[in-house]
Amino acid sequence: MIDVTNGQFKRREVAIISVGATEFGELWDKGLKDLAWEAGVKAVEAAGIGGRDIEYIVFGNMSGGLFVGQEHVAALVADFLGLNSTPATRVEAACASGGAAFLQAYMAVASGMYDIVVAGGVEKMTDVGAGQAASILSGAMDYEWEAYFGATFPAVYALMARRYMHEYGLKADTLAKVAVKNHYHGSLNPLAHFRNRITEDEALSSPIVADPLRRYDCCPVSDGAACAILAPLEIARKYTDAPIVIRAVAQASDTLSLLGRGDLCTLRATVKAAGRAFDEAKLSRKDIDVVEVHDCFTIAELLALEDLGFCKKGEAEKLYGDGQTYVGGELPVNTDGGLKAGGHAVGATGIKQIVEVTKQLRGEAKNGRQVDGAEVGLAHNVGGTGATAVVAILSRR
Amino acid sequence: MRAEFDIGLNEAFRGMGAIGTGFGIVGYGVYIPRWRIKIEDIARVWGHDADSYRKGLGVEEKAVPSMDEDTTTIAVEAARNALKRAREAKPGDVGAIYVGSESHPYAVKPTAATVAEAIGLTPNITAADMEFACKAATAGIQACLGLVKGGYMKYGISIGADTAQSAPGDVLEYTAAAGGAAYVIGGGDGVIAEIEGTCSYTQDVPDFWRRDGTRYPSHAGRFTGEPAYFEHVINCSKELFGKLGTDPKDYDYAVFHQPNAKFPLRAAKLLGFEEKKVLPSMVVNRIGNTYSGSSLLGLAAVLDVAKEGERILMTSYGSGAGSDSFSMRVTDGIEGKRRLSPPVRYYMERREYIDYSMYARYERLLKVV
Amino acid sequence: MSSSGIPQHWRTIRERYRLLGARCEKCNTNYFPPRKVCPKCRRRGKTAQVEFSGKGKVFSYTVINASSKAFERYMPYIVGLVELDEGPRVLSQIVDCKPDEVRIGMEVEACFRKIFEQEDGGIISYGFKFRPSDGSWAKDYDGDLKTIDAEREKA
User: How big is the A-C interface in CB pairs under 8 Å?
Assistant: First the structure.
């Protein structure tokens, strides 16, 4: 299994052989297990594999304990999928749990240790009230020095937005444009949390949550699960005609809280992870045909495009004047509705992004959401205010 | 002319005119929250005649604490201001802290410990909370004086602070206010007002009280005047005059506890002080009765303007009941230290008005049903 | 913020009450909250305790209209990232100030306030917040001293 060349260990190329995801939303009649099961079964059936074939399960989940009193989530998922001797590990990196799980799964296959590995993510957030959910999510920040003093998660992104407005002159209607686009894409995605289109006026007149961020600048709390099955590229065609090659997965860290950031308008972890990913993939930004970025708040989408290197710092606004970031535009961003409209089931989001990019690269996105001729895609998943960032580059071959 | 004092006098203390050999106030600081509510806005809610309350109490408006302020936060702000003036008092030299209040945030858990921690005086310090209605902190000053004069420590700090509570609709609602003042007591060159002498007058008088577990205090109406406030303030002051061999004409200022604007002026008259000697200390008309902070805020207002050599009488009053009197002489040290912290005037002028609905929210009246 | 977190509240009391941070003696960088390891110097550095003056400027701010349960009673309130004069940035509430008065660059100073109160007779947490710096009182000491009653006569 391990390819040893000149005594040096050589990494294997890894492909995604199938994906599956649940709808994201307020799913009262589905519990944590049900969600994981649904996404898992979709992926397993699409790959035409049996339970026996799965060698390792990595599942992202931010806080099963606080949301539903359940830790040991990966073991639970394995059990409920009927795979109860398969090793299963839960990965936690707040909102980047899914992306971090994806990296771990990739490493398991690339290293030669395992062949068929499930990378998934699940979050069940609506069993607790909104206030409780907000409290739990504040664990993604620095509890002692941010949440403790009254900061909420929207508040810390609002601090970044306010600073960005101060340094680059961002206008509120640009933020609204991001929300409008993502809702438009969400309306074309049957799995999206929100499928209603909105107007800029509606966005700009929605109630303030943490000034300057309004309700339509903030992603929802969602239930959902997503799954991707990975295999070494060399055997991927046994399972699918359209294996999607993982060209790179890179992860980086930054300070947990905003306190230690020099520049409040840059997520250094995104910059680092993107740099490593593009280096490893030997691709440039121009090669990317479709992008899924972490738009937990509209401002985050703008920062992401800059930090990923698609435009200069302070200039993301320019990409929203002319439909460039819509399907059909130069650089379609968040074609499934992103987090804002697609939904944000925290631990699952990173994998949901992989699912969407995979569908796009396979030409399987429906309802007018398909990016014509998409060959290379990028998924960007962030934890907290940027303490963790994961960037994955996938391509058709 | 000078006589023996009750608390024991040693040779050094007799040094009138000898700068720096006495003990007294080494630093003082105050804090008053920024919110105010006018008596009109209170009277409107209860259907009272605002004018009659204004005339009867001599009070225009009172200070209200923000939702995130309480006796502890006020005490810390006042203490920090006092320590700025008591600049020679290094943390290790302050050996005692007393916080006097009727609105300690915890019934059991000392405000003094939190304040000591916040101003960096822990751990080698004795601390206790005091309660004697509005005179708890002047008792604290006496305690500090004893410890310092006894040679147990170089400095002590006593703080009087309150976020006074009053039953909605009761007459006390017009005056129960929030504020505080802190005094660092010590000896040596840093003394800005030497305490020449102090005495007290205490009896069991049920004029104003609050039983444990009840939210608001009760009072005995007009009984709180003559047999309570005046009995103690007058007799205590006279006691001090007797022991020191002084009388009102020897004093440039007189400071009395200010439950309203009428009582201290009447006390002055009864003792034989001209009104102009009391007026510099009068803060109640614009900030209300800050209870344990009251006489100490009045004293601070005087220290903000007093000149070297001037003499001050302060007599506090606490319901239940008792008074502490102090005779003080301002030294030349005051000029240099005064400007190190904001004056009382600054806090009085720094104000913003709220109406009764915001007042009810800040005072958490809406939770009580 | 449940009662079971008492030791957690207690451990950070000094930093919260007095803005105690750390300074790396090798590179002279100040940190808040205090760090055991200087990220720049790591093993070569040595950190020592330092008490910050409390003076700083607003680096960014937001007004919170939807808070967590513990802070509901204080809504709306202003949260800001304050850059201390000594260098580090701290996240804190900005008080004694209207939401439309906060500005990036506004000078502020630390004050001592309640952070929150636990329900059902739990503890009160205290710590630093920031208010707009106001040194206007210093001018009260210039010129002739006027007593408060002189102000009253004017009014």
Answer: 107
